[in-house]
Write a structure and sequence with these properties.
heterodimer; A: 384 residues; alpha/beta; 6-stranded parallel beta sheet; 16 helices; B: alpha/beta; 3-stranded antiparallel beta sheet
């Protein structure tokens, strides 16, 4: 890649865990220089959070996944000398992000108002759990809790199941994405006006935005969305939308006209259902379909469905997906060597620019790895 | 000043992935012009869900396309194509989510468009990228969830693979294309050059799984195993999950099991003093917890857990959520008026800039509603050369 779009931009990341750091990762992959400002001794709390007890060097592999392509600068924000150095960095920076609970940055003297005094061009990105006002503002902004409080847990699984969370940190991820959008828009405006900006996003607003179709439908109808009793795929959608067991695996069937479907898979019992009842009788129709699909293998059904251009695919796990040519042609994986020489395979940035994939070999930093370099390059020797 | 004021987006995309990106750009100040097929328009106009319609159109079309303009054109007609090209010539962004080859056939592929407008940011969303054996297959949300391994992460171990109940692939691909577009627009302010920005739904949904895929790649390619009961995340220890109480549901995120045992007065949990067991024996621990938690009301549990800073929450549905002060404080609801005068309540842009929220009350456009206005704006109205012609 000859020139990445955000080349020349400096981002200071005070964020921890996933929401803010996932935004930092995207900005880094798109070309920005991202410096994590971390507490001496401990650093980003995400360094200690592991899944499956996997560790790389001194930090969790999870940390390495989220924080590759960044630098680390340790500073104790409660120590006046360290704070003075961080303020020097803010003077040079284009973007600052944090995801502390409301009030913390104000307490250390790095509120937006203070940052703007140091650097009127700064884009200051702040993530909160629930916004900065109201009775929930001090609650922990943790992904599962946000899924539970935002209504999202009533979208997945079947009607009789408990409310069911998404098995991934959707709130963190989407909030990080919204922050990136806000920051980039403000950078575009800054090129015209010279002025910085305060960008605020919250996990809760991000999840409400995510459910905008469901919420708009709820406001229009006054009725809560209902998960279907059988093979629920999306509470708003009619039969056959969902995932079905076959004789040897599972297939997904999306929006498909009932008559066309019945014909394609020779299901006489389904022929009696008119498209008009595809929503109101979806549980009944899906039960009929589920029973019928058990009689043959996935490949058999997919051949019939694809021959008629009907929307269906096989359900794969990662083992089968990653062996498929449709996956390997993406070249979605990249291998990174950590500072201590260990190799980790991870994914790359999903955005392609000018037909090129963006690979970034730079590993996640050791805690404080770049203090000396950053002091020299960005603060200048006279301060030491 | 809204950050994207003066930015013109010509949007050929349909359904949700592209249009959700267009919506965000519109929220932040861009003029978003939907180019729609004469007579039919965005197919989403006819996608009725949940039997709810507004003015004969699907509710979701209105939710996705508020604050945009509609320009109807038959791109197979020379005259219409020419007009659209003239709009493109002055646009900042072009976006589409057709299957590979369609824009080429219409004569609006990147090379052609770049010749018309070298500074344009040309953005495309595909299902599976423009190569490989799946490239011509429909890029539909559920199908992408199915092939990407995502369905093995939610629900319990003995359940079928379970899709996430919101169009997560569309939405994530939409945020990624918006990010790419904005980054390219920023770059253009420096280099004066446009870019091609491409996102596929498959790459987007793989990116969403980046933490757990990295685990898979490096940990002997072990597949995720969902917990047998109350699964919240295949890779996390007990108690992570949602539990039934005497009167509702309670979510418990990461927490210390022995501390929970004490707070909840659940003696059988006291034996799990070894933290490694919280993962290995999570089904056993969760079963004990699940049985115990049905003994009291949600609020009773919260009253002992919250003061101890345990990560917990009451599970809400929309009806209970909207009555909460914590929700109302956000002002997340937005009322928009459609061109036929109907009032619709939807959600606003989740990004606040300089302390302000964006609350445009412009509804979704009627098909072709803005043809005259846009013809005027781009000088496409046929004016007679002289009175003599008339």
């Amino acid at each position: 890649m000859s020139r990445l779009p955000l080349q020349g931009l400096l981002v200071l990341e005070f964020s921890q865990y996933l929401s803010g750091p996932s935004a930092g990762l995207r900005l880094a992959d798109l070309g920005a220089r991202v410096i994590k400002v971390e507490r001496p001794g401990t650093g980003d709390a995400g360094r200690r959070l592991s899944i499956k007890n996997l560790w790389t060097d001194d930090s969790s592999m999870l940390f390495h996944t989220i924080n590759r392509n960044k630098e680390s600068y340790t500073a104790d924000l409660k120590n006046p000398d360290d704070l003075a150095l961080v303020k020097k960095l803010i003077e040079k920076a284009d973007v600052l992000t944090h995801n502390f609970r409301p009030g913390i940055m104000e307490k250390v003297g790095l509120s937006y108002a203070e940052a703007v005094k140091l650097n009127p061009r700064i884009i200051y990105g702040a993530i909160s759990g629930y916004g900065t006002e109201g009775p929930w503002k001090h609650r922990p902004g943790q992904d599962l809790l946000l899924q539970s409080m935002s209504g999202l847990a009533y979208t997945t699984g079947n009607a009789k199941d408990n409310p069911m969370p998404f098995g991934l940190a959707i709130a963190d991820n989407l909030c990080g994405s919204q922050l990136v959008q806000g920051i980039l828009s403000a950078l575009i405006r800054r090129q015209k006006t010279g002025a910085g900006a305060l960008i605020e996003v919250s996990l809760l607003e991000s999840l409400l935005d995510f459910q905008f179709e469901l919420l708009t439908t709820y406001h229009s109808s006054g009725k809560l969305p209902k998960r279907s009793k059988v093979n629920n795929g999306n509470p708003l959608l009619s039969a056959p939308y969902g995932i079905y067991s076959t004789a040897d695996g599972h297939i997904a069937i999306a929006m498909v006209d009932l008559k066309q479907l019945a014909k394609a898979i020779h299901c006489n019992e389904m022929m009696g259902y008119d498209q008009k009842v595809a929503f109101s009788l979806r549980d009944e129709i899906k039960s009929v379909l589920a029973k019928h699909l058990l009689t043959q293998k996935s490949a058999y059904w997919l051949e019939k469905l694809h021959a008629k251009d009907l929307w269906a695919m096989e359900v794969l796990d990662w083992e089968r997906l990653t062996k498929h040519e449709a996956y390997s042609c993406l070249q979605m994986e990249q291998t990174i060597t950590t500072t201590h020489g260990k190799e980790i395979t991870t994914t790359r940035c999903p955005i392609r620019i000018n037909g090129e994939r963006i690979f970034s070999p730079k590993p996640a930093p050791q805690l404080g790895e770049h203090n000396e370099k950053i002091n020299k390059e960005l603060i200048g020797d006279k301060h030491f | 000043m809204k950050p994207l004021q003066d930015i013109i987006v010509v949007d050929f995309s349909q359904f949700l992935s592209g249009p959700s990106a267009g919506l965000r750009l519109a929220d932040m100040g861009a003029q978003v012009i939907k180019i729609e097929r004469t007579g039919v328009g965005d197919i989403c106009r006819q996608l009725y869900v949940s039997n709810v319609m507004i003015e004969g159109e699907s509710t979701i079309f209105h939710a996705i396309n508020r604050n945009k303009q509609s320009y109807a054109a038959d791109l197979k007609k020379e005259e219409d194509l020419e007009k659209v090209k003239q709009i493109i010539a002055r646009a900042d962004v072009l976006m589409h989510n057709f299957r590979p080859g369609v824009m080429e056939r219409l004569g609006l592929d990147y090379e052609t468009v770049k010749a018309i407008n070298p500074q344009i940011v040309y953005a495309e969303v595909s299902g599976y990228s423009n190569e490989g054996p799946w490239k011509d297959l429909p890029g539909q949300d559920l199908l992408l969830q199915a092939v990407s391994g995502l369905t093995w992460l939610s629900s319990n171990r003995s359940d079928n693979p379970t899709p996430m109940g919101v169009a997560v692939v569309d939405i994530l691909a939409g945020t990624h294309i918006a990010q790419g577009i904005l980054a390219a627009l920023f770059q253009r302010t420096i280099t004066n050059e446009g870019s091609l920005v491409q996102v596929s739904m498959l790459e987007s949904i793989l990116d969403f799984q980046f933490e757990v895929l990295t685990c898979f790649y490096n940990d002997g390619r072990e597949l995720p195993v969902r917990s047998e009961i109350n699964n919240g995340h295949a890779y996390l220890s007990a108690p992570y999950g949602i539990y039934k109480t005497a009167d509702g549901y309670l979510a418990l995120a990461m927490g210390n099991i022995t501390q929970l045992a004490t707070l909840l007065e659940c003696d059988p949990l006291q034996q799990f003093t070894n933290t490694a067991e919280w993962f290995v024996k999570r089904d056993e621990i969760k079963t004990i917890l699940a049985n115990h938690l049905t003994g009291r009301n949600t609020d009773a549990w919260l009253s002992v857990l919250e003061p101890a800073d345990i990560w917990c929450a009451k599970v809400l549905d929309y009806e209970t959520l909207i009555q909460e002060n914590g929700y109302q404080t956000l002002n997340m609801e937005l009322k928009v008026r459609t061109s036929n005068g109907l009032l619709i309540t939807t959600t606003r842009c989740p990004i606040r800039i300089d302390g302000e929220i964006f609350t445009s009350n412009i509804g979704a456009p009627l098909l072709g509603e803005h043809n005259v206005q846009i013809d005027e704006q781009f000088g496409l109205t046929k004016h007679p050369i002289s009175n003599y012609e008339m």
